[in-house]
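Appendix B. One record, verbatim.
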Amino acid sequence: MSLGTLAESKEWVAEWRIPGEAATEAGILTYDPAKGLHLRLIRTGNDAPFGGARRTTGRRDEGLPKWPVLHGVAKGIRLTLHNVWVSRMQTTLSSAAAEVEAEASVLLVGCHLDDFDETVFVGAVTQVDWLTAWSGLTAYEITEESDAETNRLTGSTAITTRSVQSLSVRTGETSFGLFHTFMVPDFDSQPSRTFARTWEAVSATASFPAPVSFTDALHPLASLSHLVSLSALENCGIVSESLTLPPAPELWPDGHLLQDKVRRVEVYREHIVPPLGVAKGRPRFLLDLDDIPFEELIPRWLALHRSLEPVIGMVLGLRYLPDGFVEPRVVTAVGAAEALHQSLDKTTEMPRAEHRNLRRAILDVVPAERKLWVSERIADNKPKLMNRLVALADLMGEAVRDALLPSAEVWAERSVKARNHLAHTGAADFDLEELHAVIEVSSAVVVLVLLRQLGQSEERLLDAVKYHPEVNYARRLARLHFAVPDNAVE
């Protein structure tokens, strides 16, 4: 298995053409984790690329050529670029070479694809930051020998490897799995010392009952990075992505080993969160496969992600972009809490029939000149935002709520005031420290409620409030800013 990742730079020298057209251009394609995909065409004339390409007139490219798809071949490997636009084109009046540089959104390595909406992919494989540690799947077992009489370590250590059983679960007609790979230690002798190198990795897989499109193939596994991010409270990016195509016997001679094998297609595209690369230390997971088995957790997560994807996106956005302005982060954090409660708890809403009858009874006794004013204020049967936030805190469980929040009512009241002032007046009567507390505490509440919905035990969440660095930080902020005032009237 290749260890190529989205954190590594790559280069391909290829012949490129527009699908269905004969004209070709030589070019060097590079992938840089920080800059994305860049194509530089190697030209010998100053005519338009590919013998005259379609042109657009948008402000972004100012009429420079743009192609939905380009096909390339590099050392026999098929390449497909999607959404390609020329970012720089320099020509001269003489016959000197024209310089053409282009950018692209997506690169497929291993196939030619004309239409990215075409349903051709039967599977997907993804690696995510911290997925190996989160899964708990490991091939290595390290034991230190001790003396039987003194119980002291002898200094001898044994490292053994074993095969790891893959995990799988079927959700609907789609199969999801985790499979583990590792490399036997490779010894490298140097004049001063000998090095032993090894690695192991866990990948997530999806197998579809019928071919699906590019987007539909990658979306389910991409959501797995959100699950690991919530579990680690750390930005976990996509390390690598690939798709699988059905076997193509016609591409190989009769009897060839690869005639009946699925074909792997590597995917390179820009992600909001880049892979971590080298991390400072292993995170403390709020949820992992030791808490809930894979075959139970994945169906729950996929269902939760489908119904609450905007909420999950909002709370992860606060973690993915931690250096943004405080004010919009307050609105996002409180908005995520409101939307989560609205999706999960319908019991706090007054039944429509009851609300309609109550509204009619009230309006019957209101003076005519005040009917419109009163009608607008009792038009909705949904609870107020403050009531929603208090009810959301209850969904964590009583013990977790009381450990995190000294007063759910005070947190809800201050959060609502901060959100409303910012949303309606553009300013908040709060200092930056309290606004920061609203963000951190509201985000912690949303994360803990989401994990509770996945089935995490109240005991483990209570442990997180006490000992997890991020959640305990939110707990300290809550005690500093959202405690019941000493002069409060009971």
